[in-house]
UniProtKB/TrEMBL annotation:
Organism: Saccharomyces mikatae IFO 1815
Chain ranges of the Methyltransferase domain: 50-155
Protein name: Methyltransferase domain-containing protein
Annotated InterPro entries: Methyltransf_25, SAM-dependent_MTases_sf
Pfam families, A to Z: Methyltransf_25
Gene3D superfamilies hit by this protein: Vaccinia Virus protein VP39 (3.40.50.150)
Classification via PANTHER family: METHYLTRANSFERASE
Length: 282
């Protein structure tokens, strides 16, 4: 197991909800597109070390092993890391359940932020998967610099961000439960613009940049779980809105979201999002 650095766990408190709700839709689409495009840019049959950075529930590593097991070299080193101990626990549980698989059996885990990989040596990885995570740090370029640093020469990164998010608008409904609650901030411009993403990648040294716009649908059968995820998960993109809510106000917020979805959509409810999927080489 790799070294870790301690960090506050925003995600772990609701890791089970996250696993059940967000396994489909954009996260699933994202890892599929990233891994496919990484393989096009630098074939996985030549991979030496692969990092799933900001791995969450481990969707990136699951897709990689499920779909590219026959192409991966027997000697490839696999690492899954996240800032959330709760998410890493889910990955470890999946690893234990699949220990008969040689790749899962030797998977390493790490606990760190994408913008602070100080425990990782330079030139450590040939491939990095960074699905729906790079837009969270306040300093986008520093996170990219860290990825560039830990990649081997000619190493490749695949990452994704939202150009549009179909379910975040539900936060606007939930915030009505408390007068004076903060408004939802717009998507970070650095990560919702193709031109700015390309500019940021180039500024830290990346080349052979390719960016694709991909639509994805999140289908939700259990609207209550989605509402609780949005209001209670501690997601840094929404937590500041609900952090001063009492438990009863959070319940009202969830009820408002549920009512809105049930009145405006058929169940299972569909939410369309648009992803920007980027790959680049060091």
């Amino acid at each position: 197991m790799m070294k870790t650095n301690k960090t506050q766990d925003f995600w772990g408190n609701n890791n089970e909800v996250y696993r059940k709700i967000i396994i489909s839709g954009p996260p699933s689409t994202s890892v599929k597109e990233i891994v496919t495009r990484l393989n096009d840019l630098s074939p996985l049959r030549n991979a030496t070390e692969i990092l799933d950075n900001g791995c969450g529930t481990g969707l990136g590593m699951r897709y990689l092993i499920d779909h590219y097991e026959k192409e991966l070299p027997d000697s490839v080193r696999l690492v899954a890391s996240d800032m959330s101990g709760g998410m890493i626990q889910l990955v470890k549980e999946h690893k234990e359940k699949n220990k008969s698989n040689k790749f899962w059996r030797r998977l390493e885990t790490g606990l760190w932020k994408v913008e602070d990989m100080s425990v990782v040596e330079d030139d450590s990885f040939s491939h990095i998967i960074a699905s729906l995570v790079m837009f969270f740090p306040p300093d986008a370029k520093h996170a990219l610099k860290e990825s560039y640093r830990v990649l081997r020469p000619d190493g490749v990164i695949g990452m994704s961000s939202f150009k549009g998010n179909g379910w975040w608008e539900l936060v606007d409904i939930g915030r009505k439960a408390k007068e004076g609650a903060p408004h939802r901030k717009p998507l970070p411009e650095n990560w919702s613009s193709r031109d700015l993403i390309e500019s940021n990648l180039k500024s830290v040294g990346f080349r052979d940049i390719k960016i694709a716009e991909i639509d994805s649908i999140l289908e939700v059968k259990d609207v209550k779980k989605l509402a609780e995820f949005l209001v209670k998960s501690g997601n840094p993109r929404t937590a500041y809105i609900f952090e001063d809510f009492t438990d009863s106000e959070k319940k009202i917020a969830c009820d408002l979201i549920i009512k809105h979805v049930e009145e405006t959509k058929k169940i299972p409810a569909e939410f369309k999002s648009t992803l920007l999927v980027s790959v680049a080489k060091k």
